[in-house]
């Protein structure tokens, strides 16, 4: 395949608001390797007109010959393809490359789009650099040539060794000045990938193998994580840490990552895939001004959690007592809070269980001062999730299986007058064949929403998020 040299490159995300952090890692990498790379990571242009005007302004000012579009989340497929269309209508000769989880999963469909020249599957740093340098034999590439779709070897995969080269840098040169002062937070990846196969998850091990060719998760090199922290704290007061590895205690990773860096004026949010130990909570308390741990649970009902675990549908679940103990441990320190992330509407809810989750939540709010928040969403279909091949046995109806299904739902988001935030976003929400169960779950979700609204209003400004 013959390629041109691309000295000027623009990277944008299909996700509105804060785009995925992968865009910063990628742009930083290109910049360090001699490419004039620029990215827009914080995009609040929600109306159709503002969205187009912003993109056209960037294209005019930067005159890139290559535009990279990150398509991580399936809800934004239509928005990502709209970006490609705007770029090509402004300058048909500008090359468009699409990457990210969703683009990798639906590579066969997306490459046929007339406004897409290339797809980079899986990890993108080295393939993107080689594309910019006009090289041949670029790994992980899907492209069009002589009316054929061609693919190169899927051989570039991040691991602990090569992740030393991947870190955030040069933010003041790769991001616009106004944006630099507007980051509400920045994510730092401590690890990559997952070794679990939770039945609803599009980031599960099986999907990681299919879309990233990643057999096993890994913790990134400490050196790189420290570089990320040092660069990020120049521009934000809140760091979000994500991607712990289930079964591998992250204490040493955090301890070595924070050592000698003054984070006393900063806040931290930790997506705790591993249940935090007392020792880790103490470390976080001593390191940050304040911090929040978010623990992933599959249901508010202990019985349902443990049933899902027993059936092998989700990763190991904590008992109520284990969760209460984490909240008590946080309380001892005064500046560390714990909350939960949860999906409502899981299978195996018993008919007489209505109200159990509500009571559980009210108990936590009333009796555990260290409780911060509950992040929740309804169970929905995610591309590649194990449940897409098992939904019938679980009595579910799935509204999205094919690319066209996901695209159609993402178009509903794009066609709204103002692009929706999380609360109004259209998802391929699953339902059950049992209508009584659907009604119960709907009522349960509304009740939880109202309890949390009241709690959040009463605690406004108290926690980090
Ligand atoms: S939900 Fe389960 S499968 Fe998905 S990323 Fe978390 S632990 Fe892994």
What does this structure look like?
The protein has 465 residues and is α/β, with parallel strands linked by helices. The chain folds into two domains: 8-151, Rossmann fold; 184-390 and 434-458, Alpha-Beta Horseshoe (pyruvate-formate lyase- activating enzyme), CATH 3.80.30. Helix content is 37%, strand content 18%. It has 17 helices and 19 strands. The chain has helices spanning 22-32, 48-62, 77-90, 101-105, 107-110, 125-132, 171-174, 177-180, 205-212, 222-232, 251-258, 278-287, 302-310, 320-331, 356-367, 403-414, 435-458; strands at 8-13, 17-18, 36-40, 42-43, 66-70, 95-99, 118-120, 141-145, 148-151, 186-189, 191-192, 218-219, 238-242, 267-272, 290-297, 336-344, 371-378, 396-397, 431-432. The strands form five sheets. A seven-stranded mixed beta sheet has the order 3-1-5-6-7-8-9, with helices on both faces. α11 (251-258) links the parallel β13 and β14 (267-272). α10 crosses α11 (251-258), α11 (251-258) packs parallel to α12 and α15 packs parallel to α17. The N and C termini lie far apart (47 Å). The mean pLDDT is 94. The chain binds iron/sulfur cluster.
